[in-house]
TrEMBL record:
Protein name: Ribulose-phosphate 3-epimerase
Chemical reaction(s) catalysed: D-ribulose 5-phosphate = D-xylulose 5-phosphate
UniProt: a divalent metal cation binding residues: H34, D36, H67, D176
Key words of the record: Carbohydrate metabolism, Cobalt, Isomerase, Manganese, Metal-binding, Zinc
Source organism of the structure: Adhaeribacter aerolatus
InterPro entries: Aldolase_TIM, Ribul_P_3_epim, Ribul_P_3_epim-like, RibuloseP-bd_barrel
Length: 217
């Protein structure tokens, strides 16, 4: 049976022990590392920038997905791509010309993902989904870890799944925010290929085991 792809979000880890956390993730069944970059404008929070990203790259053995919660992310794509990032995910709401940004990401040799805030309808994907490696559906308002999963996103997952089928394309569906072992099964049954999980992994006594359980969703 197909296993769920699991991307631990390091937003809710203790940064004083970032090296230890990365070692745990390296030894786990996690499929990639989800790294949230926030600008304090697109979302009401700041996370981290290039120095931390450099440190992450030195210690992780997992592919890295950068989730850019920043306005006009095209300003930083080249700089980010230098960190051997596997995928860059930008918000449709934050790009003036989404298609151009997706092209730029691909020209830089990275996979391209587009994230949608919970309230954003999926219409904006219709003429671009064929070119995407991934659609990231936010199931919380972006900016903070530890929030409650928004149930209405289950329907949105089904809608994107149907769009992918209609367009006969290969984009994966990633769902991000408030996911745990209790609600995760429903998220996967609705059509998610990948889940981004922060608190439920890093608040547990055994993050490696928590990741293993999520893979069985
Ligand atoms: O992007 C975000 C929040 O903005 C997410 O990646 C969260 O960091 C996931 O953490 P939990 O909701 O699982 O705590």
């Amino acid at each position: 049976m197909k296993k769920t792809l699991v991307a631990p979000s390091i937003l809710s880890t203790d940064f004083a022990f970032l090296g230890n956390t990365l070692t745990i993730i390296n030894k786990s069944a996690a499929d990639w590392l989800h790294v949230d970059i926030m600008d304090g404008l697109f979302v009401p929070n700041l996370s981290f920038g290039m120095p931390i990203l450099k440190a992450i790259q030195q210690y992780t053995s997992k592919p890295v997905e950068l989730h850019l919660m920043i306005v006009q992310p095209e300003r930083y794509l080249e700089t980010f791509a230098r960190f051997q990032i596997q995928q860059i995910t930008v918000h449709a709401e934050a790009c003036l010309h989404l298609h151009r940004v997706v092209q730029q990401i691909k020209e830089l040799g990275c996979k391209a993902g587009v994230a949608l805030n919970p309230h954003t309808p999926i219409d904006c994907l219709e003429y671009i989904i064929q070119e995407l490696d991934m659609v990231c559906l936010m199931s919380v308002n972006p900016g903070f870890g530890g929030q409650r999963f928004m149930l209405q996103i289950l329907d949105k997952i089904r809608q994107v799944k149907a769009l992918i089928k209609t367009k006969k394309c290969a984009a994966l569906i990633e769902v991000d925010g408030g996911i745990n072992k209790t609600n995760g099964g429903e998220v996967v049954r609705a059509g998610a290929d990948a889940v981004v999980v922060g608190s439920s992994i890093f608040d547990s006594d055994n993050p490696r085991e928590a990741i293993r359980h999520l893979k069985e969703l």
